[in-house]
Structures are given as structure tokens and as C-alpha cells.
Design goal:
The chain is α+β, with helices and mostly antiparallel strands. Helices cover 47% and strands 13% of the residues. The chain contains 40 helices and 21 strands. The N and C termini lie far apart (91 Å). 35% of the residues are buried.
């Protein structure tokens, strides 16, 4: 009786399994013998009987098996579904009491969540102060701190608003927040941000609609003045539709865990926890998973998956079948593909795995288990079982604590600036009209600039040429698929360049739409229009905005009628009012939250300011961030930018480097952590030695305190290859040659220290070894070897780049640099690239055909290249690490939306430079050429016969004439040919056209 009266039942199940049929009579007998009631159940694993096949596929996906495998886990029948009452009664007709007991149990099991009210954590004001009084005290203190800056802008004419508007808005927001009972919420967020700043944890300027709150600005939760930029409180909190505020906060990604730790410590470990999220199968992923399970050839699966668009309503299997004719035809004509898509369709959107939400945490006033169930992952991490939306639905406080990498980059850049120049830059005090910063945007020089890095955005910036902060807010809002596809973004550009295109349906619209040149860009503008033209309150206008977003016909009709009636009362013609309402509906589909756009434009401006005024410090911070991520391709991109800006990137150095990238004057110094095989412990020990003894004076000084447990042979080899010992005054080749001798010397010193041995011969025994005479005359490694070693241990070329000498010619030979490829604009287009092969993977198809994949690197970045069996059979001899190649192929993207090229032709770079050349032109300044020069030129031309037509550009003081060479009609424009001609006639004497 340990379970209590009527709490223990014997269960009957029948899924058509022989074992179950055998034991049912035994269970019934036991029930009678012990007087225990029976209950009939079904082991439910899927909803419908026909879902058995889908369940089988899911099991294969989970276990990594194929449907055709015989030795795999699978269900023995299709009866594991949710059966109807009638089906269960029929199945257990002999035991009606077992069916009846299911009703009894169901009637006794019930729980209702209290779905009204909110359960905020207990914020305790100091000195037993009243919560409301403390809230007002902190808000008014914050307002007083902001006032001088507000007054200054108003006095200078930079802010068109009045102080009276600020005082009125402050009182209105205080009143509304207190009416809704959210004083505690604001104090919780304020306290979290205050504590973070006190611990020097960088906090973002705000995000989302919270930037529309003056009180959030006063409390330091946001850094954007909502009145100056016409942001609305009601877009954030609507008093007519009360729900918990939602303030998301960005923190330095490196220190996000410290913020979570603070929350946990303040509110109690039993009251704080991260939130679960469920990864679902997207269309492409479902097709790839099902294709593998059904053993469909990889090339077919890849082809089908890539036919699914990545955005919009067509980004589903059903949507793609309607909008992609090629896929529809394949579905209709290919039975295997049709089956693949039918199964994948049923899996699309299904939960694939649980994981931890990237940002969300929940905080409760009492232990979490009193409010919701918890989940422990295989790694031991505790999360909620409820996802975000359910947590909000039961009234619990959910906070998004986001780790933003860009804040880490800003922090590092500011630290570099202070260490290098002594200057403390306060980014919240920089002018928002800095011309140098706007030049960064206008030139599209925005690598590393938050939210403005993509190829499409760079092109937009170059065309639009933003001149003020409001332009950045608008561009950030407009650069999205909707406004781009609708032509809205293009019209915005045209109106800037052709102001005569700007018009307003009514004069009342001009103050609202002037900053966006007559186009409705923001949701806040929709709300303003409704209040000005139709007399809506801002709270009612927010409901109109939400109705438009939901597109519910009945709701829209009611809002339209209200708008027209309000406009009529304000003397606006019905036809005009209807036209404006229709425009609002049209643009509201793409309207963006201005508050969020303003907050993120502010962060973008800060990063651009750093890039404009402190480029070395900013790029060092960017590369530090990429090094922490282990993203070599991005480091390559930023190294190229350093070269273009004239910033020298110095190799890691045992005497000057720190753990990560640092700045030395106007140069950037690579950190020791960039070197492979040099571990964290080794770096810290080297830095400790240096701190204790000062810089290493010479080579032997490094080995005097040698400890093989800290600095082993592998680490020393890598330090030499990276150039980290260059400052000790020895060529790398000589150091490498002497390494065994040096290590032996270090071992003897270490042994003597450990044994504390002293002998008559100690001085001789421990003095530095003699260096063989021949070492002093050893040449440095040639460039190819030296750069190869740098690439090996640093992941990138540093002293130079194997492609550097070809740079001018490559501009004519390729269609794109790797960094300039736009995944959307160039998708499925032919591209021609040149670079060096970083790594190669040899693969096989299901039919055992050979193929390959390799990483190609040029001066701007890296890209993946796939070589299918047919091109592989022709071009596989070129696929070697370190080989410089020219690649022609189609631009594509993989299942992770990463760009790659499907190669159709591959040549060695030298071969391509010669074979792809259409014309070679030699410039001959006739007035400066001697007979000897011409004789030497004849000799060079005779030495390089080939197939590229040769033209001579004959330059006289008053004319230029281009003629085809008669004697040497074609040449081979190899690198050696160019070098010899330019050595004779000077740089720029030869032009090769491709």
C-alpha cells in the first residue's frame, strides 16, 4: 500500500507482438489474485498509423543507419500510434474494466497553470525603501545626468525638441510603468547593467523596442535618446495590451557567463536557469537526412537540396515544388526523388534535438521547480523543459542575455588604444557628425563594421553615400529581403539623388516622413500617421501596427474603418484617407522597428569611428576575435586589408608579442597564441620569464633557463618557422640548423639546476656552445620555403604571399576576388578565381567514383571548392597542397549557407597566365630606346615563343601607335618573360590582356 489507495494498476498493452499476447493472460491472473485493477494503454510513438514509416526514418537518422540495413533498431509493428477510443475498446473487448479505468485515471489527473499575472523576482531596494519610491528616485537621478547633454543639443539646434517634451514624456512613462506594475522589472534590468559596468563588463547601447523608452535611456539601459530620434514608448510598452516588457541586452561575448553568474548569485541558484530550445529540421536538412537514410546518391541529394530556396515562403519543400519548375518536373518524373521529397516533407519542421537557447534565462521569485519542469542534458547542463514562448505564457520573467562579439572587439580596440597612445576613448561621447567616419561608410570600407559588412550592404553604401546618423538608421532598416525585392530600397536611393521625386500625399505627412524622403520605412511612422491623421492614441496606433503585421482580414477591416472615421473628423477626404491607408498597409509589410535599427546603427557608427581614427587598433581587435574563433579565412581577409591600408603586420616575436594581437606604433604585432604547437602554458611561462628577466638578449639567453617541460622541440621549431625568434639576430635557417645543439645546451643547464651540481668544470660545461663556422655563411630559406613554414604554423602567409608577385596580372585573369563574391548576387553564376590550395580532401561517391574538395586562398580570403568526378578525372594532378591554381566554376552554397565553388576547369596558375592570355602589349618609348636595348629585346622575344599575339605600343613625344609585331607575332607571357622585359624597359612596360 506504499502508493496509496487506488494508485497502483497493472498495465495491459497489445501492439500485435507475440510476447505481449503471451503475457496478457498472466497479468490478468495476477490482477485477480492480488486484487489490483487493470488499465489498458498503448505505447504511443507517433500520432497516426501511417506515420510508422516516418518513425522508422527518424530512428535511422538518430542511429546513423540506413533503411536497407538489417542489423538496426526498428519497431516490430505499426501499432505504436495514438489509437482512438473505439480502437482501444475493440482491442481489449475482453477486459472492459481496463478501458474504464483509463477514464478514472484521466479524471484524477489535472493541473491548471495560473495564466493571469506575472511572477517577477523579488528586487529589494536598499535601506528598506519602498519599491515605487526607489524606482522614481533612480529614474530622476538618471534624468538629471542626461539633462546637460540634452540641453546642449537643443541649444545648438541639433535636437528640434523642447525640454518641456522631455519632462512630460518622463512623467507619462513613470505613470504608465507604475500603473502596469513594472517598476521592479526596470530595477532588475538597471541593476544588472549597473553591476556589469561596475565590473567593467561591456554592455551594448540597447536593442529592440526598449530604445523607445526615455526611462530606459535615463537608467542607462539604452544609449539612444528616444525623443531626439522620434522613437515611441508605446512601441515598447502598450498600456492597452499589458504584457511583460522584453528588454534584451548585449554583453561582451567573452564575459557573458560572468553576467549569468551575477544573476544566479543575486537571485539564487534554485531560481535561475537557462532556457531550452528545439532544433527543427529545415527543408534542405530534411532532404539530406532522408537521402542518406534511403541511400540516394549524394550528388542527387545535393542537387535536389540546392533547388530549395533559402528564404521566403518558397524555402519549404511544398513552396519549392510550386515555385521551382525544375524541382516540380523532377518530382513528377523521378519516382525515387518523389519518395525522397514525400518523406522529407513530413519531417520538415519536426524537432531534431534539444539545446540551450543562445541568450535566454528565466528568473523566478521562488524555486524554479514550483513553476515549471527542468531538463538535464547529456553534458549535465540544467535548462527548462518549457521553451521561451511557454515561459512567457505562464507569466515568468525571461531575459535575453546575449553575447555580442562586436562588443568584445570594441573593448579590445579601446584597450589597445589606451596602452599604445595613453588615450581613453569614450565612445558614448563621440560626435555623430564625424566626416572621417562617414567616409568609411561612403566608400563601403566596412569590413568589421557591425551590421554593415555584407557585399550587398557595401554596394548600397557606395551608391547612397550616407551623410548623417539618420541615414544609417534607415539603411540598417531597409537592407532586408522585403524592401529590396519590393523596390523600396532602390526608390530610397533614387530619392536621395533626385529630390524632385519626393512627394507627400498630405502636408501633415511631411514632418513624419521627411527623414525617409517620403517613404514609410519604420513601424513608428505608421503609428505617427495614425495619430496625426486619424486621431488614434499611440497605444491604439500600436494595435493598428500589430493588426497589419498579423494580416487578419476582420481585424484589418475594423482598423481601416476606424482610421477612415478618424480622418474624416480631421477634415481629410475619404479618397485621400483610403489611399494613405492602403499605402500604410503596403509599406507596413516591410516596416521595421526604428528603435532597434537606431540602437544597432549607433553600435555600427562606433565601430566605424574606431576604424576611421584608429585602424591598426581596430584591425588588431578584429583579428584577435577571429583568432579566438579559429577562423583563419577571416584573418586572411583582414591581413589583406592591413596591406591595403599600409599597416604592417609584424610576425609573432618572443621579445615583443603578447598572448594575442597587439599594436606597436602604427603596426600590428601577431600574438604568440597564433603559433601552432605553442600551448597556452608555454606562452604564459615565456611571458613570465620575460617579465622577470626582461627581453631575451640573445639566442643563448633564451636557453639559459630552459625547461623542456615548458618549451619542447616541437614548440621551438614552430617559433622559428613563425619568425618569433628573428629578433635574437639569427636567420631562421641557421636557427633550425642549430636547434639540436641549442636544446642539448638547455638540457645541460636544466640538469645542473635540478641537481644543483657544482664542479671544477662547471663553467666550461655550462658555457654556450661554439657555433660552427659554416653556419655563419648559411643563406636564409628561399621565399617559397619560408612562406610555406609560416603558413604551416600560423595558418596564413605573413612576410609576403605566394600570389603577391602575380597581383596585377590576377586582376585581369579572375572575375572576382574570393572576398568579393556575393552569395546571393553571384549564386549559380560562373566565376573565375586564382589562388593557392590550402588543403585537399579526396572523396568517393556512392558509385565509388573519385572526386575531391579543397580550400582555395587568394589575397582576400578563402573558399571551399568541390570537384565532381568528371572534372576530377581531368584535373586531379593539380590538386596538391601549396599548388597555385586558376579555377573556373559555378558559385553555390552548401547546407550551412557557406559559399563554395563547383569547379568545371582547373589549371596551374602559370599555365592559366599563359593560356588564358589574349594579347601581350609591350610599350616602347622610341625616343629613349638604344640600339642595344632593341637587340636585347629581340633576344628576349626569341627566347619565349608562344601562342599569345604580340603587339607593340610605339610611343613618340606627340603620338602613340599600336601595331602587331611582324617578326615575333606571338609569345609566351610567362613570369620570366615579364621580368626580363621589365628589367630592360622598366616597370609597367608590359601589359597582358585576358
Amino acid at each position: 500500500n506504499i502508493f496509496g489507495e487506488e494508485n497502483f494498476y497493472l498495465e495491459l498493452q497489445n501492439h500485435g507482438l507475440p510476447e505481449q499476447k503471451k503475457i496478457i493472460p498472466g497479468i490478468v491472473g495476477l490482477s485477480k489474485k492480488l486484487g489490483l485493477p487493470l488499465v489498458a494503454t498503448n505505447d504511443v510513438h507517433f500520432l497516426k498509423q501511417e506515420d510508422a514509416q516516418i518513425q522508422d526514418v527518424l530512428i535511422c537518422i538518430q542511429t546513423g543507419k540506413k533503411l536497407a540495413d538489417t542489423d538496426r533498431l526498428h519497431f516490430s509493428s505499426d501499432q505504436f500510434y495514438l489509437k482512438s477510443s473505439a480502437e482501444m475498446k475493440e482491442l481489449f473487448a475482453e477486459y472492459p474494466e481496463a478501458i474504464e479505468n483509463t477514464r478514472h485515471i484521466a479524471a484524477r489527473c489535472n493541473f491548471e497553470f495560473p495564466m493571469t499575472g506575472h511572477f517577477l523576482p523579488n528586487f529589494k531596494p536598499p535601506d528598506n525603501k519602498n519599491l515605487r519610491d526607489y524606482f522614481e528616485e533612480i529614474v530622476r537621478q538618471g534624468f538629471e545626468k542626461r539633462l546637460p547633454q540634452i540641453k546642449e543639443k537643443i541649444d545648438k539646434g541639433l535636437n528640434p525638441h523642447t525640454l518641456e517634451e522631455y519632462y512630460q514624456r518622463l512623467e507619462r512613462e513613470i505613470k504608465l510603468i507604475e500603473q502596469m506594475g513594472f517598476e521592479g522589472y526596470f530595477l532588475i534590468v538597471w541593476d544588472l547593467i549597473k553591476a556589469s559596468r561596475e565590473h567593467q563588463i561591456p554592455v551594448g547601447p540597447g536593442r529592440g523596442s526598449a530604445a523607445g523608452s526615455l526611462i530606459a535611456y535615463c537608467l542607462g539601459i539604452t544609449q539612444i535618446d528616444p525623443i531626439e530620434y522620434d522613437l515611441l514608448f508605446e512601441r515598447f510598452l502598450n498600456p492597452e495590451r499589458i504584457s511583460l516588457p522584453d528588454i534584451d541586452i548585449d554583453f561582451c561575448g567573452r564575459r557573458r557567463q560572468e553576467v549569468i553568474d551575477y544573476v544566479t548569485q543575486k537571485y539564487g541558484q534554485e531560481n535561475v536557469c537557462q532556457i531550452i530550445t528545439f532544433g527543427t529540421m529545415a527543408a534542405r536538412q530534411a532532404i539530406r537526412d532522408v537521402g542518406r537514410v534511403m541511400d540516394v546518391p549524394l550528388s542527387e541529394v545535393d542537387r535536389v537540396a540546392k533547388m530549395i530556396p533559402t528564404q521566403g515562403p518558397e524555402a519549404s519543400i511544398e513552396g519549392a515544388l510550386k515555385s521551382v519548375p525544375e524541382l516540380k518536373e523532377l518530382y513528377q518524373k523521378n519516382e525515387r526523388i518523389a519518395r525522397l521529397l514525400d518523406v522529407a516533407k513530413k519531417l520538415e519542421g519536426q524537432v531534431r534535438h534539444p539545446s540551450i537557447h543562445a541568450a535566454g534565462i528565466v528568473i523566478t521569485p521562488r524555486p524554479l521547480v514550483e513553476f515549471l519542469p527542468l531538463y538535464q542534458s547529456s553534458k549535465g547542463e540544467i535548462t527548462t523543459q518549457f521553451p521561451m514562448t511557454d515561459i512567457e505564457a505562464i507569466g515568468l520573467l525571461k531575459m535575453d542575455i546575449l553575447g555580442l562579439r562586436n562588443l568584445t572587439i570594441i573593448t579590445d580596440a579601446l584597450s589597445f588604444i589606451e596602452k599604445n597612445t595613453g588615450e581613453k576613448v569614450d565612445l558614448d561621447s563621440i560626435p555623430l557628425d564625424d566626416q572621417k567616419t562617414y567616409e568609411v561608410f561612403q566608400q563601403g570600407n566596412t569590413n568589421g563594421v557591425f551590421q554593415f559588412e555584407s557585399h550587398g550592404m557595401k554596394e548600397l553604401l557606395r551608391r547612397f553615400k550616407p551623410e548623417q546618423f539618420r541615414d544609417l538608421i534607415a539603411l540598417n532598416a531597409l537592407f532586408r529581403p522585403g524592401p529590396i525585392k519590393s523596390g523600396m530600397m532602390e526608390e530610397f536611393i533614387q530619392r536621395k539623388n533626385h529630390p524632385e521625386r519626393i512627394n507627400y500625399e498630405l502636408s501633415q505627412l511631411e514632418p513624419i516622413l521627411k527623414e525617409t524622403r517620403g517613404i514609410i520605412v519604420y513601424q513608428e511612422q505608421v503609428m505617427r500617421i495614425a495619430t496625426v491623421l486619424a486621431g488614434f492614441t499611440l497605444a491604439e496606433a500600436d494595435l493598428l501596427r500589430k493588426a497589419m503585421g498579423k494580416k487578419i482580414k476582420e481585424m484589418m477591416n475594423a482598423q481601416k474603418e476606424k482610421f477612415l472615421q478618424g480622418a474624416k473628423k480631421n477634415g481629410i477626404q475619404q479618397s485621400k484617407a483610403e489611399k494613405i491607408f492602403d499605402q500604410i498597409v503596403q509599406f507596413a509589410e516591410y516596416g521595421f522597428n526604428k528603435s532597434h535599427s537606431a540602437a544597432y546603427a549607433y553600435l555600427a557608427y562606433q565601430t566605424a569611428y574606431l576604424k576611421a581614427h584608429y585602424p591598426a587598433h581596430f584591425l588588431a581587435a578584429l583579428m584577435t576575435s577571429e583568432a579566438e574563433k579559429g577562423d583563419t579565412s577571416q584573418i586572411v581577409k583582414y591581413l589583406n586589408e592591413c596591406r591595403e591600408l599600409g599597416i604592417k603586420v609584424l610576425p609573432p616575436d618572443i621579445n615583443y608579442s603578447h598572448y594575442n594581437f597587439t599594436v606597436e606604433g602604427n603596426n600590428i604585432r601577431m600574438g604568440l597564441s597564433a603559433i601552432k604547437n605553442v600551448g597556452e602554458n608555454t606562452i604564459h611561462e615565456l611571458l613570465a620569464w620575460r617579465k622577470k628577466k626582461g627581453k631575451f638578449k640573445d639566442l643563448f639567453d633564451l636557453f639559459e633557463d630552459y625547461d623542456s617541460r615548458v618549451l619542447n622541440r616541437k614548440a621551438l621549431e614552430s617559433l622559428i618557422k613563425a619568425g618569433a625568434l628573428d629578433s635574437l639576430g639569427w636567420k631562421r635557417s641557421r636557427l633550425f640548423y642549430l636547434l639540436d645543439t641549442l636544446i642539448e645546451y638547455g638540457h645541460q643547464r636544466q640538469k645542473a639546476r635540478e641537481e644543483q651540481s657544482v664542479s671544477l668544470f662547471a663553467d666550461d660545461y655550462l658555457r654556450p656552445p661554439d657555433i660552427p663556422v659554416e653556419v655563419h655563411s648559411m643563406n636564409e630559406w628561399d621565399e617559397e620555403v619560408l612562406l610555406g613554414y609560416e603558413k604551416e604554423v600560423l595558418g596564413t602567409y605573413l612576410s609576403s604571399h605566394p600570389l603577391a608577385k602575380y597581383k596585377k596580372r590576377l586582376n585581369h585573369l579572375v572575375s572576382h576576388t574570393i572576398e568579393a563574391i556575393d552569395p546571393e548576387e553571384d549564386f549559380d553564376r560562373e566565376v573565375r578565381l586564382a589562388g593557392i590550395i590550402v588543403s585537399v580532401k579526396l572523396l568517393k561517391t556512392k558509385k565509388e567514383e573519385r572526386m575531391a574538395a579543397f580550400v582555395l586562398e587568394d589575397l582576400s580570403g578563402q573558399i571551399d571548392v568541390t570537384v565532381f568526378p568528371e572534372p576530377y578525372s581531368k584535373y586531379h594532378p593539380y590538386l596538391k597542397e601549396g599548388q597555385m591554381v586558376w579555377v573556373k566554376g559555378k558559385m553555390s552554397i552548401d547546407s550551412f549557407e557557406v559559399k563554395k565553388v563547383l569547379a568545371s576547369q582547373i589549371l596551374s596558375l602559370t599555365e592559366a597566365l599563359e593560356k588564358q592570355a589574349r594579347k601581350t602589349i609591350i610599350r616602347l618609348p622610341l625616343d629613349r630606346l638604344s640600339e642595344d636595348d632593341l637587340a636585347q629585346l629581340h633576344q628576349i622575344l626569341a627566347s619565349f615563343p608562344g601562342e599569345c599575339p604580340l603587339y607593340l605600343e610605339l610611343e613618340k613625344p606627340d603620338s602613340v601607335c599600336l601595331v602587331q609585331s611582324a617578326e615575333y607575332q606571338a609569345v609566351s607571357p610567362s613570369e620570366a618573360f615579364l621580368e626580363q622585359v621589365e628589367a630592360l624597359l622598366g616597370p609597367e612596360a608590359v601589359l597582358v590582356e585576358y
